[in-house]
Amino acid sequence: MSEAAAEATGTNALPHREKLLASAWQWTEPRLVAAAEWANPILVKETRQALKSRQFVATFLIVLIACWVVSIGGVVLIGPRIRYEAAGGVMLLVYYAVLAFPLTVIVPYSAFRSIASEREDNTYDLLSISTLTPWQIIAGKLGSALLQMLVFLSAVSPCIGFTFLLKGVDVLTVALLIGYAALASLGLSAVALLSGTLVQVRYSQVIVSVGLVVTLMGAFYGMILFAQSFIRDSYLVLQEEEFWIVNLALLTLYATTFAIVSCAAAMRISFASENRSTPLRRLLLLQQACFVGWIAAIAHEEGLRSLPGAVAATTIVLSVYWYLAGTLMTSEWPFFSRRVQRSLPASKLGRWLLTWLNPGPGTGYMLAVSNMTGVVTVGLTIALVFGAFGTGGPSRADLVYFCLLSWGYVVALLGIGAMLTRLLRKYIFVSMPAGFLMHAIVFLAACGVPQVIHFMYYSTSFTSASPMTHVSNPVWTLARLIEDGAGSVDALTLTTIVLTAAAITLLLNLRWIAAETQPRRAVLPERVEFDEQQLHPEPEPKPSNPWDREAAEGV
Amino acid sequence: MIQGRAPMIELRRLHRYFGDTKAVQDMSFEVYSGEVLGYIGPNGAGKTTSMRILATLDEPTHGEAFVDGFSVIDDPDRVRRRLGFMPDYFGTYENVSVREYLDFFGRAYGLRGTERLSAIDRVMEFTLLDRIQDKPTSGLSKGMKQRLCLGRTIIHDPGVLILDEPAAGLDPRARIELREMISRLAHAGKAVLISSHILTELAEICDRVAIIEQGKLIAAGSVDEISEAANPTSLIRLRVLDDAGPITRWLEERADIDNLVADADLLTFNHDGGPNDQAELLRQIVGEGFQLVEFASKTKSLEDVFLHVTEGRVQ
Question: Looking at the partner chain, which of B81, B96, B113 has a beta carbon nearest the beta carbon of A49?
């Protein structure tokens, strides 16, 4: 064959292409190997396991077959109308259902099983005594969930791409739907991992497992319903600016909640002497900051008229938030391990600013109280400075009472729960769930006892009772205050009583709060200091002038 | 304490309570590098509990435990780098081969690149697992699983080994091989704390033993030391050439001898005292002119000592 003929048939070009491919692979392979070296060990192990697992292969094949069946069945059913009918939406919804099931049910449940089976197969202890940190373990499990998710996405994505070729769906809708599914899958996996770390014994594992499956199935149906309405209305909502703002706000909420859930899972499996509380407290503060930031931005956009509503909403949400967080923080163990003492803030400024982030029930109580004080101070300032809100929303007086009562209820109820937990600890061991239960009892008593009196002496009507009957009931009092105004609940008397109760509770708690602020930073033992120096030696000082350089080089 | 050397394992007045159950009470002992300490006691004596505390899987109610000078409570991360723990159960994964299993734990202990590959090769050669490196771990025999678990325990070349019942359920050949491996590890300078119910095995590889019962340490030291401290009498057997009557009468008059049984030319009795006293007794018998064919002192086995110092109570 002549050279020209060879060129025409492309046989000369082939070795050149192969050479290019080979050199590209030669460049890529060592980099992949190097990346695998530094990959999370659990991710590497679980990927290897998944590739050999029959369950994974079967699930993947079922998803693939379901996609083929939907594609062939859909095209047959639509028939020749496929050329002009907007069938993309329907097809996308069916493909989305096929994708959403593994992403919202299989992947998160696998994550749960992955951590639960470590306990069942006695490998959890082996992981615990390795040098893997709890964060690495959780990150590895999450990475494995992410990888599985990508594999399922890769199976369904050609089909979803096919719907774009049909009429009725735009690329942004498809991208957003896939994004939502991926985020839901990852978020549910984090929740599943946290659930997996909560179960210690078999019977609780069964209960948590059933609860998780029900939640995941609910999430799956929720995803389908959401996708249905989103595909139908996307051409409208995507045009609106509010849609993107809400999405961004929800993304912030998602990211911070994801961080809190993952951190909680890591803290659950960390060693007892480890500081399990401070990282979570930091994340709570971050989430609060994000929430307040978004409310402030929205209020700024909406103008002065929206301020009362924004203040009331922020106060309600953050009161519930800090009350719930407070119930957990005040149930923490009141003693610092020496390991925790080594990491306490050493400087005066550090102690001044960061003491409430230290673990312990007293500091936890004060963190909740401080944040509530901050929230209420901002709310009161807004209520007093921007007096003329205009029409709509609560009045200035209502808002002032609302803020003060919210603060009072959180401080009093948390303080009473914390004191009871502390009292009980003198006699028996009170775990964190038991402490949480104690707070729940206090809250239910505060709300339930007035409600019983209400039904006994008044009527079943929500508004007919005397406000003083419900003095301990934050739900009734705050709801009536915001709905019917300060006059309907004798707000001044109520606020005086609640604030007095809160002040007394705070004072009664102060003694043991003060005790928790006493420990100072513990000195590092010599053995640890020496080991630290060997592990992380200080870098040799670099020569700062030519003479030093010459001396260093021995010139 | 061995002068001039810091202990690799140290328990200081360790207590562990589970509600009203006192699993470990006031336990203190030390293990030095190159030493094998046998940890023996009846079921439920607190061996596994104290080993789990040392392995940073549990925390003590009171007291301290140190590995290579690091507190297991305050510095569990540093302890884990220096410690290999082999629990009394296998922890194997589905769909993972022997090599992949060791590779995973190599990575989990922070070994990277060639360091990890050579560690895997070293461990497989040591435990003779190289021939089955591609076999799935779930399909291994018990003996092979034990080897694999030992391999995992030493993959990061720790200075301290804690082995909880490593020979349980193994056939005689596997037990001998495991014993040899442990001896080699001790010769390599590792401090080994090993618990086992097979006391004859322990006696052969242990430098010292610690006997615990009901969570308390009741004896610690070499087998001879414990034996002597627990019961200084020894069983003597002697055979005479001619009539046993005169020597029997001579022995009966002695205060340091009791339980004398004469059967023709064979006499057995308990003698108060250690080896020096036995040598003195032998010298006196010969000095009296009795003609002896045999004079034997029965050495107490670890089993004898164990049975003597424990009462077999379980919590």
Answer: B96
